[in-house]
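Changelog-adjacent note: as of this version, every example in the card shows the full chain rather than a window. The one below runs 371 residues end to end.
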Amino acid sequence: MKETIVRFLRIPDELRESYWQDTVQRNRISLLVINIMIIGMELFNMLRVLFWSRSGLGTLNNRIYFTLYCTLWLAAVLSIVLQRLVRRRQWAVQYGTVLFALIWHVCMNAYDLMRSPEAEISIYMTAILGLAVFIQMPSGYSFFSYGAAYALFMGLAGRILDTGDIINLTIMTIVALAVSLTSSRHAVIRLEQSREISEINQQLQALLQKDPLTGLLNKVAFEGRVRAYLAQEPAALTLLIVDLDDFKDINDKYGHPCGDHVLRETAACLRDAFARADGVGRIGGDEFAAVLFSSSERRAIEQYGEALGQALSRISWQGAPLGVRCSIGACRADGSAADYAQLYREADDALYEAKRLGKGRLHWSRPENGE
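Full-length structure tokens:
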């Protein structure tokens, strides 16, 4: 039971920042509407005292009411101004406004009761219920605000109220508190669901970019990553296309399960050999690609290719070595205005040349406007 109550009242740490942002945004709109209504109503009340009452400000009672109207009117104006000026501590302005509004209605209703014990307590009860419905508050502040307002009201007018009014006031305070707590909990649930949906969407987006067999980037995602980098006018880029030599023979001899095994192992070898790559993808059946957004020396990249060849040679199936090899076509652009299609064509031509020269090697080529 205790754990359930704590979970109901608590704002999870991972949602705390989102909760405050959501609360500030929601309360900003609610308080703007409330403050505009207050400005209009209290302006009417001030004019009523000044021009439409017989005694104007000639009596103490009218001066007290006029002061109360002016005070709430000024507080509403100040709240609107501060919410536009203050950026970092808007929650403080908002909750300060709420607390002031509660205290004002306590004082207003208590004064009515002091003047006439038969007066209704509806002004205060309407205020706390309205704030509970329209203002979002964390549980701690809700307990403090409604508890403090209830204690102040009872302190000022408790001896004037009859038993029925005290019961009604107590029930309404509990109802307002329950509404406020429930509203806060619903906000937390909504943010949790939004967070879960966002995470699911991110996971789905990641899955859409991955090749299902190897877990590498698929062709579209790999190409998109390179194009995005080229659009930023990069200083350097190296594109490599890797093709397994005689992969069809492995499939024909050992079957497609073995072929899939080789492709998965090749992907793992690529990740290890080109650990510094900014993208590794599978762009065809047994064709892979890697891109490095850097100015790595050619010799360093060739060493990555040698490491890949050594790793591939260790791939086996059911204890038997498969003799897997690969050919690599490499294309480098240093500050050039090459696009992806041009770079891919150059790297593919280099791959073809590597195959023609005997396979199992890395061959370089450059765009026409390269070095």
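Structural remarks: The two ends are 73 Å apart (CA to CA).
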